[in-house]
Structures are given as structure tokens and as C-alpha cells.
């Protein structure tokens, strides 16, 4: 009888654990993000990242971001792109500006899988700030403001991480509220 009761408890515990785990997929742009999918396959489902997805496609970076990685992507929302001066996005999306678009997009990517905790450790080691090298070859600086992770680009602009640690099969995404700009 004890075995039956213990087995029943184990099954119930497993059911609750599975249910809680299923809820741990963060929602980004109204869509669940799955750690079993790659960066592109998750991003295309976010209604808050349609501009970013269009830009990644226009730059020809889809296959790269579907690759093994790992990558850390600081993903600007549509609202972040809307903060840019009027016409900037349309200009960048033109075929003749593919290299400039690629430069901006790869400036939002860091090689490796940097969780918010990893970045925070580097910040503490760097005495309040850390420097990250982007795939584009530029620099980003990161620090904490209270419990918020903040990034500064090479032009002096700042972005705040609004959703951290969106785990992907090939890295991690941190949603940001401003587009970062290289030199």
C-alpha cells in the first residue's frame, strides 16, 4: 500500500513539475519562447520583433543566427526601432545599404552565451562595469542600475534590458528598448 501511495505522490509531483516547467517559457511579443528552438525560429513568433526579423532577413543573417552559435543577441523591439530618426529603418532595409544594416545588426550580437548572471559577474569583476566585444567588432559597455541591466553603445546611446535570459537552442536573447549603434 505504501508503494502505491508513494508512486501516486511521485506521479502527481511529476505532473506539477512538468506543468510548472511548461510555464517557464518566457512570453516575448505575445509568443512563448522555447529553449529547444533557435534564435530565428523563436524571434519570428514575437509580434514585438517584426522589424528586427525583417532586418535580419534583409541582411542575409538568417542562416547565421540559425547556426550552432552560441550567440547572445540584444534584440531591439519594434518600439526601439521606432525611436530612430524617421526614415532610418526604411533606408537601412534597402538592398544598397545591406552592409550598413549588417553592421548595425551584428553590433547587437556577442559571441558566446552570456546570461544576465554572467554579465553581472563580469560587471562585479570589472568594478561596476564590463566591456563586451560584438560580432561586428565594436564594443558595448554593461552595468547594473538597480536590478536593470543597461548597455551603452559606441555613440553614447543606452539601452535597457527589458526581458533577460530568453534561452535558445543556440544562445540567449535579451530584449532591449533601444537600438544600439556602432561607430
TrEMBL record:
<keyword id="KW-0732">Signal</keyword>
<dbReference type="InterPro" id="IPR036378">
    <property type="entry name" value="FAS1_dom_sf"/>
</dbReference>
<dbReference type="GO" id="GO:0005615">
    <property type="term" value="C:extracellular space"/>
</dbReference>
<protein>
    <submittedName>
        <fullName>Beta-Ig-H3/fasciclin</fullName>
    </submittedName>
</protein>
<dbReference type="Pfam" id="PF02469">
    <property type="entry name" value="Fasciclin"/>
</dbReference>
<feature type="signal peptide">
    <location>
        <begin position="1"/>
        <end position="22"/>
    </location>
</feature>
<dbReference type="InterPro" id="IPR000782">
    <property type="entry name" value="FAS1_domain"/>
</dbReference>
<dbReference type="InterPro" id="IPR050904">
    <property type="entry name" value="Adhesion/Biosynth-related"/>
</dbReference>
<feature type="domain" description="FAS1">
    <location>
        <begin position="36"/>
        <end position="180"/>
    </location>
</feature>
